[in-house]
């Protein structure tokens, strides 16, 4: 109406119901909880496990985590199972609210999509480059410009054919120079990999909890080992007494 300023005409954000707020600001699909009790254990212990496995392959973390989780007692595992159930209940509640507010659940990725993503993720441009091709590769790299000049105007395969022919003409002594060069490059690569730390993954693969079959087998192994341990503990004092008696006899 005439006489009212803009602020009086526009409704206040405070008085508006929730549906008037832009949905994209308030809504974000909850991240699915996976991995069960083992997943919770791995998430909690990851920093210290990574510190212990520093300089080792990426798989060393999950191997160590699996070993540590199997060593836990049933009571200790139950703690992580409770954490998993609580996290899953929260996820279900958040997902329900997300869908109720108009959110759309993303389609699950296929194994092929995951494989492609893993390949892309594994290619770190800053990672040390592994030497390839052996002594022959070093030879070709050194003489590539010359071979390209000699095969100018010919098919691309002509370079490889000429390089192969020239390489076969070299003596063992001449080839040894390139073999030494490749060995040096490989040693440098291995040394660089010792201090290389791969970038943190944006979203790591879902950890797998040990299967019921494996857990049962582990329990059976523990049950078999327990009587043996008790028998050894029981026999230890008797063995000490016998040894003591022998020493007394020999001393007499």
3D architecture notes:
This protein has 252 residues and is mainly α. It contains 10 helices and no strands. The longest helix has 40 residues. About 4% of the residues have low confidence.
Write the layout of secondary structure elements.
Blueprint: H1 6-9, H2 23-26, H3 36-52, H4 59-71, H5 74-100, H6 111-122, H7 134-150, H8 157-169, H9 172-194, H10 212-251
Helix pairs in contact: 3-4, 3-5, 7-8, 7-9
Distance between the termini: 122 Å
Count every beta strand, where a strand is a DSSP E run of 2 or more residues: 0
Alpha carbon gyration radius: 33 Å
Proportion in β-strands? under 5%
Work out the helicity level.
55-70%
Envelope shape: flat
Structural class: mainly alpha
Largest sheet: none
Order of helices and strands: HHHHHHHHHH
**Low-confidence spans:** 18-26
Q: Say what oligomer this is.
A: single chain
- Give the overall average pLDDT: 78
Number of helices: 10
Brief summary of the model shown:
The protein is mostly helical and 252 residues long. It is built from ten helices and no strands.
